[in-house]
Specification:
By secondary structure, the chain is of the alpha+beta class. 44% of the residues lie in helices and 20% in strands. Among the domains are: 180 residues, tricorn interacting facor f3 domain (Immunoglobulin-like, Sandwich), CATH 2.60.40; 107 residues, Neutral Protease Domain 2 (Neutral Protease, domain 2, Orthogonal Bundle), CATH 1.10.390; 105 residues, Neutral Protease, domain 2 (Orthogonal Bundle), CATH 1.10.390.10; 89 residues, Immunoglobulin-like, CATH 2.60.40; 94 residues. The longest helix is centred in the C-terminal third of the chain and has 30 residues. The chain is globular and about 90 Å long.
């Protein structure tokens, strides 16, 4: 035992564990900052323990909930005043151990030390909290189809104190007992298991069992006339699915429940830790602004992504399963063990994304889960991490009010990619044993990234000090270049070098520890694969000197490394000529990615990329790769090529897509990917008429398309100002009788190329309190249609001016979506100048907002540079 403790101390020292000096209790007169400051959170963590909330809510009114809460806890003696958080509109009868307390300052209630005891204490209060379509802790959704109302909570990262008085920080976990009064024809679910229902006139009292210790942001309830699908097999955990009654016939409940259950069972076995909570409810939440939310025992999923309104493609099916695997992984990484503070947000989100890929790879081996990981996870990580707006995985955070800005591709995309490298770096056995140690050591408690790496290092007996310093504390990523020297047709040397992909201010420098596999492809022979570890800026590939010259060298075989792996010129030319002959889907996906990286490095012309794509497309039979390369092709066509160059390729592009749509040898998903890209890019009369035929009911793969595709076609016709677009829009609005018709029409109409329409939408984004945030978010992309860049450029400055307001008043993902839509919809140097002027004139812009703007700004600058190079290339020819 003493050896284990000593070893752990050594590991923690090597991981650069910062020495944290906890602040002393504040004097009674000290004001608290708005929000939940880190200093307040650290102080409170030393003051209280054994926390319980008994929470009663009445949700029978339409615009507010009335509640009462009883809080019990143990308090450290002589620890000073205590601060309780609450931002709701009304509070009454607040007592501490029977003594009345008054006063609310910036969402904080100061509980004087004179009313507090050493040991057990009790707080009670009555309160109200608003119910609305947006910007509240309780979201109200009105179903236009059957006129029913549904409610659900959304408290992440620190909105629990908008719902009820609490100590709203992740490391003050509490047992919560819900009691909810709702209209009698409603059903209610919470984190806890249902204990009893009591009729009460026109209402029903719902009583739930107390939960295990959970963080306040994971508290949740939902109420409404839900359709339900219970599942409680012998020996299995009870799972119940809830969805809107009007969509009951559309829900493939049995499949979704089975997928959730399979994930629960797999993760419990792999972690060696049983499912840690009493039950699992799954809710398909309408107009939910996230893909999913992992509330303990009550996972909320985005209804739009889980109810397929037309035959789903393989990427859509796999995407839904990945979301399930992600949220169920959170029951361990995030719920059982929670980050101590939101500076370690990556600790839960990165692991959930990484584990989702592992679950899918094992449960669905035909899914090529690691190909999906390379295409949809790592590509976005590289884009963000190579920008000047990047930041480290560990993100300093002084106040939870700013926590929502830490969400983004660094947390969701870079973190799982780094974790994949970590698993390869230390080895499978040490990695898995380390995770088991981490989960058991910190069960129902909180942890930091040092705790995680410490557990893995302890289990694997590997020093991870440099790994933590370079991957967790350093922003940016390495660029890895390949250097092959030949002599007389044989390898003289093969080296890999690394350097920062972008020079960043205040970069501490150093090199990234990394282990990779290098593939040398030999024509008509067996490929040679060597494992290489970086101990500095250069790694020499061992055991290859004297081998015949390879046809190509790929320095990241099996996609274990994290970095921009840039092929040498000979490899690039081989890829361009032979990509269609690569049979392994993961390798082929990575080589396609390498070619796209060359385009973005201004080392491979976008027109040539399109030529390679169109030459190779007929041979591509992987749905995920096909969809990705076509989307990149659309980017090259619409953003990277100036008008004349794009127009020259447009006819061949559209003809290739139509041929693929009509190829009866291909499956539905491959043909649908071609149709989707035709809808996004069509301009020629033949292509547009083909889309109109589909609207009239012409079959696509043996059946007419359904509403999502119909609305996408209408959107395209509106966006390019087709003469019949307005008439077709009105006809579709009349034709569509689905529950999503109103939302779809709102989103599509945002593409209208009219300044007055754009101005009306822009005003509603800020002035219409009844506008659901998910609707607004979905409309931003059509609002900023790239072909309308000249029309939307005048809105770019005002859009940037409202960023601080959005940061304060909108949910987690709205701010980056807004920034990417308004900046990403532009292609001109004049738009880039607007962004640069904004950044120059706003020196006091909060750092988190500045970083997001910089990331989008760098992408716009790259677009401008590529377009200029393409224009010059066209001129020279």
């Amino acid at each position: 035992m003493s050896h284990t403790v000593e070893r752990r101390d050594i590991i923690r020292a090597s991981l650069l564990l910062p020495a944290l000096t906890l602040p002393q209790a504040a004097p009674a007169s000290a004001p608290e900052a708005a929000g939940i400051a880190r200093t307040l959170a650290r102080r409170r963590a030393t003051q209280i323990a054994n926390l319980h909330y008994a929470l009663m809510l009445d949700v029978t009114a339409s615009d507010h909930a009335a509640g009462a809460v009883t809080i019990t806890f143990d308090r450290t003696s002589d620890s000073g005043d205590l601060v309780l958080d609450f931002r709701g509109p009304t509070l009454a009868d607040l007592t501490v151990n029977g003594q009345p307390v008054t006063g609310n300052r910036d969402g904080h209630l100061i509980l004087p030390q004179r009313h507090l005891k050493s040991g057990a204490n009790t707080i009670s209060a009555r309160f109200t909290t608003p119910i609305a379509a947006a910007d509240t802790a309780i979201i109200r959704f009105h179903d236009d189809k059957d006129q029913q109302t549904y409610l659900y909570t959304l408290l992440v990262p620190s909105d629990a104190n908008l719902l009820f008085p609490c100590f709203d920080q992740p490391d003050l976990k509490a047992r919560i007992r819900w009691q909810i009064t709702a209209p009698k024809d409603w059903t209610v679910l919470t984190n806890g298991a249902l204990e009893a229902c009591e009729p009460a006139g026109a209402a029903t009292h719902w009583h739930f069992a107390e939960t295990a210790p959970i963080s306040t942001y994971l508290a949740a309830f939902a109420a409404g006339p839900w359709a339900t699908w219970p599942s409680a097999p012998t020996g299995g955990h009870p799972i119940t699915l809830y969805a809107r009654a009007s969509r009951k016939a559309e829900v493939d409940a049995e499949t979704q429940i089975a997928t959730n259950r399979a994930a629960l069972d797999w993760l419990a076995t792999w972690f060696g830790v049983p499912f840690p909570f009493a039950k699992l409810d799954i809710l398909l939440a309408p107009a939910f602004p996230f893909g999913g939310m992992e509330h303990v025992g009550a996972v909320f999923y985005n209804e739009d992504r889980f109810v397929f309104r037309e035959p789903p493609t393989l990427p859509q099916r796999l995407g839904r399963d990945q979301t399930i695997y992600h949220e169920i992984s959170h029951q361990w990484f995030g719920d059982l063990v929670t980050m101590r503070w939101f500076d370690d947000l990556w600790l839960k989100e990165g692991f959930a994304t990484y584990m989702a890929a592992r679950v899918q790879a094992d449960l669905q081996p035909a899914s090529n889960a690691w190909t999906t990981f390379a295409l949809s996870i790592k590509t976005r990580a590289y884009r963000a991490d190579a920008s000047s707006g990047t930041q480290a995985l560990w993100q300093p955070l002084d106040n939870l009010d700013a926590a929502k800005s830490n969400y983004g591709p660094i947390v969701y995309n870079k973190a799982p990619a780094v974790i994949k490298q970590l698993a390869f770096y230390v080895g499978e056995e040490g990695f898995r044993n380390g995770l088991h140690l981490f989960l058991t050591r910190h069960a129902y408690a909180n942890a930091t990234w040092q705790d995680l790496l410490g557990a893995v290092a302890e289990a694997a007996q590997v020093d991870l000090g440099a790994f933590g310093a370079q991957y967790m504390l350093r922003a940016g990523l390495p660029r890895i270049d390949t250097h092959l020297t030949l002599k007389d047709g044989r390898i003289e040397s093969l080296r890999l070098t690394q350097r920062p992909a972008r020079a960043l201010p205040n970069d501490a420098g150093g090199t990234w520890p990394m282990k990779v596999r290098v593939r040398l492809h030999v024509e008509n022979g067996r490929d040679v694969i060597k494992t290489v570890s970086f101990g500095g800026a250069e790694a020499v590939v061992p055991g290859v000197a004297g081998l015949p010259a390879p046809a190509f060298v790929w320095a990241n075989d099996d996609d274990q490394g994290y970095g921009l792996f840039m092929p040498d010129d000979a490899t690039t030319e081989w890829i361009a000529a032979h990509l269609g002959s690569v049979t392994d889907p993961l390798l082929r996906a990575m080589l396609w990615g390498a070619l796209w990286d060359k385009v973005r490095d201004l080392a491979f012309a976008p027109a040539r990329y399109l030529s390679v794509l169109l030459d190779t497309l007929a041979r591509e039979t992987d749905e995920q790769i096909s969809r990705t390369i076509l989307a990149r092709g659309a980017t090259a066509l619409q953003l990277y090529l100036p008008g004349a160059a794009s127009a020259a390729i447009q006819p061949r592009w559209e003809a290739a897509l139509i041929a693929r749509m009509d190829d009866t040898h291909l499956g539905y998903g491959l043909r649908k990917a071609a149709l989707d890209q035709l809808i996004v890019t069509a301009r020629q009369p033949a292509a547009l008429n083909r889309l109109r035929m589909i609207l009239t009911g012409a079959p696509f793969v043996d059946a007419p398309v359904r509403q999502p595709t119909r609305w996408a076609i209408i959107r395209r016709l509106i966006a390019i100002a087709a003469p019949d677009a307005a008439v077709l829009f009105v006809a579709e609005r009349t034709r569509d009788a689905s529950s999503e018709a109103t939302k779809d029409a709102f989103v599509v109409h945002a593409a209208t190329p009219d300044a007055a329409v754009k101005a009306a939408y822009f005003a509603r984004y800020f002035d219409d309190a009844a506008l659901n945030e998910a609707w607004a978010s979905d409309s931003l992309e059509p609002f900023n249609t790239p072909e309308q860049a000249a029309l939307t450029e005048p809105f770019l400055g005002p859009a940037l001016d409202r960023l601080a307001w959005i940061r304060t008043n909108r949910r987690i993902f709205f701010l980056p979506t807004w920034i990417e839509a308004f900046i990403g919809g532009q292609t001109s140097a004049s738009a880039l100048a607007i962004v640069d002027t904004f950044l120059t004139e706003r020196q006091t812009l909060p750092t988190d907002i500045r970083r997001k703007v910089l990331t989008a700004r760098d992408e716009l600058e790259l677009t401008v540079r590529i377009r200029a190079a393409a224009h010059q290339d066209t001129t020279n020819r």
